[in-house]
Amino acid sequence: MSVAVELRGVSKSFGDLPVVQRLDLDIEAGAFVSLVGPSGCGKSTLLRMIAGLEDPTAGTVTIGGASPAELRRTKRLAVVPQQPGLLPWRTVAENARLLLEVNRRHQPADHPDPLELLDEVGLIDFLGAYPHELSGGMRQRVALVRGFALGAPLVLMDEPFAALDEITRSEMRDLLARLLERHPATVVFVTHSISEAAFLSDRVLVFSPRPAGVAADVTVALPRPRPPELEDTTAFVEVCAELRHRLHGAMYGATS
Ligand SMILES: Nc1ncnc2c1ncn2[C@@H]1O[C@H](COP(=O)(O)OP(=O)(O)OP(=O)(O)O)[C@@H](O)[C@H]1O
Ligand SMILES: [Mg+2]
Fold first, then answer.
1. In the 8-state DSSP scheme, what is residue 111?
2. How far is the CA of 234 from the centre of ligand 2 (A)?
3. Which of 20, 43, 193 for a ligand 1 pocket mutation test, highest count of atoms within 8 Å of Cβ?
4. Domain range list for the chain
5. Which long-range contacts (CB under 8 A, 24 or more apart) does 21-26 make?
6. How far does the centroid of ligand 1 lie from the alpha carbon of residue 64, in Å?
7. Residue to mutate, 41, 47, 83, 247, ligand 1, most ligand atoms under 8 Å from C-beta
8. Would you give per-residue pLDDT tens digits along the chain (256 residues)?
9. Of the chain's two ends, which shows fewer C-beta atoms within 10 Å, N or C?
10. 43 lines ligand 1 (CB under 6 A)
């Protein structure tokens, strides 16, 4: 289950500071779209507007025909933040079930079973463990499960793996790809990692420095499913090179 996201003339300013300017963007249902761009260009602000956590100064965001506020209200939108934000007094299983418990009214009948999700991310032996007993990577796996437990058709992620070491980070990336094969959703994903964006995405939007505008819209045509060995292929290396080139162009104005 997934939904399309539509931005029309979206602008955002904080006081005199324009952060996003007249942005039109269509994200097709079921797509995995990454946002990359220089630090401070407005990626998180954009994601927060799609999440309904921040209102645009002008323009509209529509998700499957509804407003972000409506999606939030009916719990059809999940946000996976950079820090896992688990409740320290609840076990792994209890943290994973949290959103289902507090949203009984809007639980879709076909939401995934949190225990099955925990099994899929390799945490079945840690159901009774508390967050302080887990490694950083394990905590972020619980946060991923929590993001998927409502079966939301739109999942928004802001650098979810940025705090992890490189090896754990690529494990998380593979886990996320596998989770999405079983539990499809539209995903908007902010990252500073070119290879992460290339590996996961159907499409990568490269943003210009603030105020954010789309400097390049790159389709990643690599076949799915994408096994970890994909990284060693020429096709993958070429996608990364193109993204790096586009990012460099967006930042320093180089032409292709
Ligand atoms: N609540 C706020 N109040 C005032 N200014 C803000 C607020 N949130 C963001 N900004 C400003 O908006 C600009 C864009 O910030 P944003 O967090 O969207 O950038 P980003 O692209 O996510 O950067 P990074 O890659 O470093 O996370 C920055 O100049 C920041 O100072
Ligand atoms: Mg950010």
1. P
2. 30
3. 43
4. 1-11+29-41+51-73+201-256, 83-158+167-186
5. 21/211, 21/212, 21/213, 22/58, 22/59, 23/59, 23/212, 23/213, 23/214, 25/205, 25/214
6. 27
7. 41
8. 789 999 999 999 999 999 999 999 999 999 999 999 999 999 999 999 999 999 999 999 999 999 999 999 888 999 998 888 899 999 999 999 887 777 677 676 678 888 999 999 999 999 999 999 999 999 999 999 998 888 899 999 999 999 899 999 999 999 999 999 999 999 999 999 999 999 999 999 999 999 989 999 999 999 999 999 999 999 999 999 999 999 999 988 755 5
9. C
10. yes
- CB of 38 shorter than 6 A to ligand 1: no
Protein residue whose Cα sits closest to atom 28 of ligand 1: 40
Please tell me the distance between residue 191's alpha carbon and the centre of ligand 2 in angstroms. 8
Residue identifier of the C-alpha nearest atom 8 of ligand 1: 45
How many angstroms is it from 41 CA to the middle of ligand 2?
8
The third-level CATH classification (topology) of the domain covering 83-158+167-186 is: Rossmann fold (3.40.50)
d(CA 97, CA 114): 6
Containing 44, the helix (H) or strand (E) segment is: helix 43-50
Name the residue among 183, 146, 176 with its Cα closest to residue 159: 176
